[in-house]
Amino acid sequence: MFQLKTLALLSPLLFAGICTPVLRERLAQAPPPAFDHQVDSVLALMTLDEKIGQMTLFTTDWGSTGPTIREGYKEDLRQGRCGALFNSQGVAFTRELQRIAVEESRLKIPLLFGFDVIHGYKTIFPIPLGEAASWDLAAIEKSASTAAAEAAAAGLHWTFAPMVDISREPRWGRVMEGAGEDTYLGSLVARARVRGFQGKNFDNADKILACVKHYAAYGAPLAGRDYATVDMSERMFREVYLPPYHAAVDEGARTVMTSFNELDGVPATGNSWLLDGILRKEWGFTGFVVTDYTSINEMVNHGIVANEKEAGELAANAGVDMDMQGAVFQNYLEKSVAGGQVKEAQIDEAVRRILRVKFELGLFADPYKYCNEERERKVILSKENQDAARDVARKSIVLLRNEGVLPLNKNLKTLAVVGPLAADKDNLTGAWSGSGEGRHCVSLLEGIKSKLPGANILTAKGCDIEGTDRSGFAEAVEAARQAGAVIVAVGESRDMTGEAAARAGITLPGVQEELVRQLVATGKPVVVVLMNGRPLAIPWLAENAPALLETWWLGTQAGNAIADVLFGDYNPAGKLPITFPRSVGQVPIFYSEKNTGRPFNPASKWTSKYLDLPNSPQFPFGFGLSYTTFSYGETKVDKKTFRRGEPLHVSVSVTNTGSRDGEEVVQLYVRDLVGSVTRPVKELKGFQKISLKAGEQREVKFTLTENDFAFFTRPMKFGAEPGEFDVMVGGSSDNVKMVRVRMEE
Ligand code: NOJ
Asked: What element of type H or E holds 520?
């Protein structure tokens, strides 16, 4: 085992406890006091410069021959001036960097290695928005645990995920990275991802630290532009945007990342109300807070401080523990302590939090714990991981329209597989795809070919994703004419989503829709396969495509998963986690809107509406078709009147009325009819994904408790107000059956 010679000599206390594996059921709980002694023992040895080093995170780079680190950063490691690195990966590289830290630095404090493992490390899973469409928390947890296992095998300790930003902004490029528009679903997904990444403990070095981001409200930028201003009422913030971060912290996430945006005039990175107040005091968070990339420096641009030194002071005093890449702490914090602008006690607290997490990971006991070449070879891209990716990928697909076309017959002799994304591999990983590579992805064309090895498959690109070149249309149309069915893959390119990738228009780019129109005009059965990272406004396709499948970016196993759905080996069951508008002009559009004083009434001009479009979306939240059909009985409750604090039991009988087995997401919504502040017309408060054989009927039961009726009341207190509520159950937010109940004191 690695010997921490200096520390062990100076501190027997420190060395005593570190070899004992400490089992923690819940990482959120206060860390074992033993670590506090160990942490303090280390802290006692540190110079101020070394303390600030632990608060400093730098990136490594990727050169043409592999990973590299700037000479200056290497020297920082030797001097103890940098305690964590990100974007380093691979056992050989991380081992070498760790060696520098633990053999060449004075105190030999191990490094922490972070990376954006958002939806897979090398085996790429669907983009998070796609995974949320599965409404399958076990599948989402499995995706995160597979990502963690691969990342850990590559020497990584820490992922900058889950991203839990609620977003009702399809223009925003990062909407692909979250779980969509809904707080309830988003909070459960946040928990599932934290469980998947962190597991119960880090004993086997196959789990990694989660980092909840971007705290807070990054998903609500004005006009959808990345990094733009966020401004909302505290009630909206606490009710809609804040709960998923809380859920993730409550589930045990050990780190939190601040967001780039300001909130009510104060940038999140310098916001003590968010960091010290809500996160630490209200929620009891004991892990550490890292900034987003250079977000301390950016506070100068925000106009909240005059220079970087002041920015560092604002951040440190607000409760930031680690500076990502900005080097503000490194450059100025010592001066700020000398000048009395930041107390050394504040620095000590930050360093304690960081060291404690390093102890929890077991890095002091064995800094090379995550360095195992054999495991790296075995785990990454394993067959088992491919199977998991295929399973989650097909669960994420949403069938938006089907005029009797799908599933396709496996006896088809000739098929046309066309469109700019039909044979594409590079885009399938989507944005934020870790270390994933297009060459490991199964394209749609490959997936179809392996499903129908004997078929004659005609292919043509037709056009590019962007641009106006129509010269390939004729070849694609000719292929369609010769085929028994046409599959056309269209959408966005992966770099149209993710960070700094907002779009003002959210239609299908380029001339892709024209291509589809020409294919549909052949009269052949045309299946439109969408690949994209945000809700698109596609009214013509939504009303004219014979079949329309939303496949997001499904990752490494995309082609196989889509082929499973196209040919009926898997019956699609995904439901939209975000509303699809008819036009960008409807944005923001989401199901849980307020009624207003003049709700839309077609008989009256003076009500809330557009002159040129319906209010309703193209596809609502919770919507998704299946190859079978489900019918819902009346929504029943065990009592129409119940007392505050008493559970309310809700049930509904769901029948598979079609001829195929299938899965259905049964959704429960609540509306508070009269409140001390106005309430949304619908709020998701429960769901169950059930599997029913053809013809099978099942009673689905929910239990609602007081919290499900609660909200931030007029005096900003969370609680339920007695009165009337509607309880609604159905298979989509726009298709529910309602029962009215009354809560009494
Ligand atoms: C900036 C992004 O906003 C954040 O999500 C990411 O984790 C960091 N860069 C590090 O790559």
From this structure: helix 512-521
